[in-house]
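Let us work through a complete example step by step.
Step 1: write down the sequence.
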Amino acid sequence: MSPLTAETTSAPPALQGGVRTWITRELNFPRMIRLAAVTIQFALLIVVIRMLNIETKAFENVLTLAFGGFLVHHFLPSSWRLPFFALLSVASVLLAFGLEHGGWMLGLGGLLIALCHIPAAISIRILLILAVAACLALFRIGPEWLPDPLRSALPGTIWPILGAMFMFRLIGYMYDLKHRTAPFSAWRACGYFFMIPNVCFPLFPVVDYQTFCRNHYNDDAIRIYQIGVKWILRGLVQLLIYRLIYMYYVIKPGDAVTALDAGQYMLTTFLLYFKISGLFHLIIGMLHMFGFNMPETHHLYLLSSSFTDFWRRINIYWKDFIMKVVFYPLYFRWKKWKLLGEGRAMALATLSAFVATWLLHSYQWFWIRGTFPIEWSDMVFWLGLGIVVLINIQWEQRRGRQRALKRAKRTLRSEVGLALRTAGTFTAICILWTIWSTPDVDELRFLAEAAANITIGQAGVILAVPLGMGLAGVALGRRSREHTEGKRSTSGSQRDGFWRSAAWTSTGAILLIAVALRPEVLLSLPVPSAWSQVGFQFMGDLRTDQLNRADEEAMQRGYYEDLGDVTRFNNELWQLYGQRPVGWGDLTGLQRDRDDVLLYEYTPLVETTYRGAPFVTNSRGMQDREYTEEKAAGTFRMALVGSSHDAGSGVPPDETYENLVESMLNDRWGSDERRYEILNFSVGGFGPLQKLAKVEREVLQFEPDVVLYAASSTEVLWATERGAHELLERGLVREFPLLVDVFRKAGVDPDERGIRPRVLEHRLRPFRSMALEGVFTQFGESTRRGGARPIVLLVEHPYNAQRPPSFDVMIEMGRRCNVEVIDLYGAFADVKDRSSLGVAPWDTHTNSRGHALLANLLFEKLVEQSIVPTDGLTEPGPAGDRLQTEEIDE
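Step 2: predict the structure and record it as tokens.
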């Protein structure tokens, strides 16, 4: 057998025809060189993923497992490959989830698979599966009437992934099982449902079982692998584009002021879909590495020339799934009815397909978050898309789709028409996507008001985007889907294509590695300096896996409010909050309402567990040690007023940074004649107005020498968004003269009622800096009148990967307001993995290690700025006085 024949044979590699035949086919030099090239590319891409922090650590571990399994899998006999893939997939579940949680997932999955094959009628099997699914849904919800041992019997972390594996795939599997469209075996079922790398992704392509079986090594193995590494690289590029847009260009609807802002929101909201497109390319690319020659999941969907074309191009696997299990069965049944006929059957089946898509998306959300949302925006998007697709289909049928044996002649008229259709489709999809992603009617109104604030120049910029898409559609939109299903390499030109593809993939991976190692080279590129600076900062930010500004604000808001709609369309917050145990941040019994401007406070004398750590309050409702109101002689007393990070949510009471600093001061300079105290008046969710009220109404009664006002990176935002609406509804705005001035400048009556929270936030937004400066001014004046020294303490949080611009804004405010500032940014500078500083993967409240780092820096600053008396000693204590926080980053 010649090398060419070995390269292009349609038979999968196996020990068929004896060992000598297998050796001739698989171990000839040209083929081994190509296999080595693929292996090197795969290894380079794994290095890129690890260096650029593309996905979770669990995915990196599974990817490494897959790399080792790839080489073993290739050289196995064909009959061993599916069992090996199935075992590798099972191993990935145990690697990512551990033995206990992974065992639950495998056990429940095995039960569902077994029910598909019991010796009973298909209807009986379906009923049993539905019964088990209903039971699992009860565990997912964890209703109050379910006994606690049962409610907490199954680990909550398994539901998003178990749902991703079975909620849709099980439907397609039963369909194929009923119609016997593919071979079935235990190994095939195990590999199909637990397929690597599903364990890492709650959002996963709906892989068709028939295609999964039919396309396994249906072409030359090396060619399939090469397509796989190429698609992995393509997915990585899309994920990098997504991260760039997510971190630097996403804005909130309330931040839109001009038409350009509204256009930016609409465009970036749609382009965030690169996250799904990129992940799906990466996932299907990995399946190619095990011989599953699957087609593309997405195909140039931004360049769709009609709504029908958009439906065909975006999330192709989902479209195929809906067509298979909903559209075709309904269409072929209904078109037999004389009352309907073919046309009406087509229309009803099309609309039914989109209604099913809407409901199944809510069903998917149920397994991720435990709720089944029925939102008007979902209905508008899916029914609206269904109606325009239906109109498009009918128009195409009446007009007649142009079909010819040879390619149609391209004329200026046809090209202009294609460009305009592509531009119009892109614009319409952006509008529909905006409605879907913005379920709050007030936010849509903000966008409409911003869009009306347009100039001729802005109109030109906005029109340039869809017109640019139209031109791209002319140049690239006619490309056919990239896949090799049923197309086997039959000529030497395929080998040339292999090396060209390998060269591009290797070069792309090496360039990404080089930029990750030396991001400063981006500053010397021959592009505008602003672009190179953004690229340089972007490469640095990638390593931190930080949230963007909008999500930082949502995260802060989410500690005290239901995220609800915030996470419905946000993958970052989905992944964080999808893991959070039920009741994690429940303050029931720990907090009580007040009838004054403080609004609420911690309940005194509570001892329980909150956010996974002891929660203890003293007789004054402070999450701190017990203190008397009267200051003892020889005591230097400081008071801290902040929010949940400063109160120590998620850490034991003695490990908060204020208690650690108190202990450090007393260990260093305390004696029988001198004591240091730091009283912690912080309360979770307190904004600037509540902190100011706390100082004036309670803190100064304790005769502090220093009052530390703890401010975070969201302090400017919270000046008008924390408590302002509740103060208005309770008629308490006039308690703050500075807030009355802000309301009047914003055109809001301080005595008005019934304004929706987002509307009030939007009106007050331009004046939030004014509000915070007023708080700082009054804080300084009131504290000095009370005989204490006012200081603003800027506290770094784990998600502040880059220095927040608001810190410099507040430093300047402090100068203008005659208030000292202590800047604690840099406390976490030596921590490589900032996620290790959160109390949980889904909760970025500072953990004990982070509090220790803050305590070290605060201790130094208190001494350096001569804030605490030290008997003339102005230098910080020796290294031995610092808390030991040198831990190895995982």
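Step 3: interpret the result. Confidence is low (pLDDT under 50) at residues 1-17, 484-495, 555-578, 873-880.
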